[in-house]
Write a structure and sequence with these properties.
Length: 280
């Protein structure tokens, strides 16, 4: 059993959980993920590792309460235990050798962009971190991201923090101003990663995206996480999750990501109905 050592609410529907998982922490690197189950009857869901502490033996994950399982996770408290917590899975991000980088995070993806920026920063790379949120209330980990970057740009869709625009707005501005990035790393909703890749394409900048797709077993056997990259079939769980953003077929990936939306909505509605019954 994997105990929740710390719970911190980052926003109305986003929680940070620190999990006691020493064997996972021993090998974890930025870019990798875990697969967990809340209980013996629960579904397996992948979550990217937000942070790890080898000395304390802990793994930090950030969870947005949008589906049945993530709602259950959000209801758990310090001292509760997860049934399964498997990892680290996937190939660690290759971050050595870069001198100038832009790390772009969208929404919850900022919790994953943060460790990438932190690692690059620790390696001596000059990092521009561009974080995008719907509004000021949705902003998470701002202090942590600031400490992990050379320059932090926080954008909001509605401009409620004084910086209105999408992450691509700021990225385009920096590229047109002459910034010469060795790499741009984009992590967030698929539509955001698609447009980040299209923004960098005319400038010929290497662009890496993190594809957190539908997964079941995390070993490449089920085929649920398959993608088309450069015309070839790849599996996010074993070949990724990092891929060349200029080679990913995002339209296909987005269609596949929507396959189980009706079932997920039904499971979420069932969970909400159970919660109402408990309140009564």
């Amino acid at each position: 059993m994997y105990q929740i050592l710390k719970k911190r609410r980052l926003s109305s529907n986003v929680v940070l959980l620190v999990i006691d998982a020493p064997y996972v922490a021993k090998k974890a690197e930025p870019g990798q993920f875990i697969i967990l189950r809340v209980d013996a009857e629960g579904e397996r869901i992948p979550l990217t590792i937000s942070e790890y502490d080898r000395e304390k033996g802990t793994i930090t994950i950030v969870v947005q309460e949008v589906g049945a399982t993530t709602i259950k996770l959000g209801q758990m408290e310090e001292g509760d235990c997860l049934h399964d917590f498997v990892g680290p899975l996937g190939i660690a991000s290759e971050l050595e050798g870069y001198k100038r980088a832009a790390v772009v995070g969208g929404g919850l993806g900022c919790a994953i962009a943060y460790p990438q920026a932190k690692k690059l920063h620790e390696l001596g790379c000059k990092v521009d971190l561009i974080a995008g949120f719907k509004n000021t209330d949705a902003i998470i980990l701002e202090d942590e991201m600031r400490a992990a970057s050379t320059n932090l740009y926080v954008m909001t869709d509605d401009g409620s923090n004084g910086n209105k625009g999408f992450v691509t707005t700021k990225l385009q501005e920096l590229l047109e101003a002459g910034e010469k990035y060795d790499v741009v790393i984009a992590i967030g909703p698929m539509i955001m990663m698609k447009f980040v890749s299209e923004t960098t394409r005319p400038f010929g900048v290497k662009t890496i995206v993190s594809m957190n797709t539908i997964m079941v077993d995390g070993t490449g056997m089920c085929g649920g996480c398959r993608l088309t990259v450069g015309g070839e079939t790849k599996f996010a769980c074993v070949d990724g999750p990092d891929f060349d953003g200029h080679q990913v077929d995002f339209d296909e990936a987005m269609r596949r990501a929507a396959i189980y939306k009706p079932q997920e909505q039904a499971a979420r509605d069932h969970q909400c109905n159970l919660m109402k019954m408990e309140v009564k």
